[in-house]
Amino acid sequence: MRRGTSTRRAGARIAALLAGAIGLGCAGSAAGASAELGEPFALRVGESARIEAVGIEVGVEAVVEDSRCAQGVQCVWEGDAAVRVWLRVGAGAREEALLHTAAREHRTATLGGYALRLVRLDPAPVAGRATRPEDYRALLEIARAPGAPAERPGPPEARGASAADTRWAGGVRAPRAPPPAAWQR
After folding, report:
1. Staple 49 to which of 11, 33, 71, 84, CB 3.0 to 4.6 Å?
2. Could you give the CA distance from residue 49 to residue 35 in angstroms, rounded to a whole number?
3. pTM, to two decimals
4. The domain 30-149: what is its CATH number?
């Protein structure tokens, strides 16, 4: 009888350890998740994600307004929700923007050389029921902004380039020469 009891106890301990490990794994994936450049990803208020390939971190700070038309209600206009987001490139300063759901407002902002777009905000409002801040999920997408450098910021030497390999000197682009006098009016 003792042998069967100790086997059951060992099995129960293993099951408890596995359940704890799975629970910790799930809890750790909510904040500080990873994302890919050009691929949509969802974040809740207070969460952030890292795009390791380009060294940026993005987060959702708050849903500051939600006047979207509720489900089951006929509205004259679509309404709008505004989401405060932030982006940090490398160890740089955190930049913030307000993104909107309405087509007539700014759904995209350029921060740190990247275009951050609000694809969708869930859940849709329901008539007679307030949405708690922790229930919101913002579907975001990040891409390089037009004209932004294709590599991580920093001096060329940090990326393995020599001064002869690049038009950049010390990480700063050399100023352009003024146009010829004949072109000026």
Report:
1. 33
2. 6
3. 0.63
4. 2.60.98
